Amino acid sequence: MTLKTYTSNKRGKSTELARKLGVPTTLISQWANGVRKIPAERCLEIEKATLGVVRCEELRPDIDWSYLRGTQQ
């Protein structure tokens, strides 16, 4: 699921995620709308905070997450 979809699904999701990550809600919005690129280290935090609903692979497809996770075939 994309970050934009996740934050749009239920009222307050952006605020909740911002609180969990310790960032302003506006930054979550900027990430979700593609205004700012999500730093790689934040992708892991977002995946954990969303309990895996939003995956790193969806947030930053330019990074070889399978290699970093050690699941490369």
Automatic annotation (TrEMBL):
InterPro entries linked to this entry: Cro/C1-type_HTH, Lambda_DNA-bd_dom_sf, YdaS_toxin-like
Molecular-function GO terms, alphabetical: DNA binding
Pfam entry (one): YdaS_toxin
CDD domains with a match to the protein in the record: HTH_XRE
Protein name, per record: Helix-turn-helix domain-containing protein
Native source organism of the sequence: Proteus mirabilis
Phylogenetic classification of the source organism: Bacteria, Pseudomonadati, Pseudomonadota, Gammaproteobacteria, Enterobacterales
